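[09:14] KT: can someone run the structure on this one? pasting the chain below
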Amino acid sequence: MRRELEPLAARFGMDWRLSRPDPGKRVAILVSRLDHCLLDLLWRFEQGELEGRPALVVSNHPELESAVAPFGIPFQHVPVTPATKPEAETELLELLGGSAELVVLARYMQILSGGFLEALGLPVINIHHSFLPAFAGSSPYRQALDRGVKIIGATSHYVTETLDDGPIIEQDVEHVTHRDDLDDLLRIGRDIERVVLARAVKWHLEDRVLVDGRRTVVFR
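[09:31] RB: done, structure tokens below
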């Protein structure tokens, strides 16, 4: 197969590689206090729905250590404040270096610096709670409720230095109505985030995603 592909790739100036399924792919998960995406991913790994294995969970808060413990996965607490962010990123690099091939931000509520991403040298996948319209700042679902939105959604993308501007891997939405209160929107939003992030991680681990500049091509 390689012999057949090499002339074709040379003819069109293609970058290419062959990959095989690898149950040993190591995934590091970063999380803050919200546990819905984290626990969903850990469950899917345990059930064999996702290729690879979770190698490490890192959080800037200690509360989720007890939730991770039953899965038998190492948990590390790396606190972050504005004053200690450089030191925290250095510690993160030491923890992640050589221990993972993919980093997933499962509602990790910290912005990773460009220097950190460059030094890390690994793909990083994020999930956030917006499709259209997007509400920035605190209490996005309260803002959505106040605006009377008709859909809410989530987007999963690769992380770049520019906040929430990386190549999009997956998106989804759910319709909502005037009957839905804030608790309903939060519940629906969490469900969408879980599914969208899991799809993005699955497709990346199965080498179904090609990045083309600011876009992706996903072979579903």
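[09:33] KT: thanks! The chain has a mean pLDDT of 93.
[09:34] RB: yep, looked fine to me
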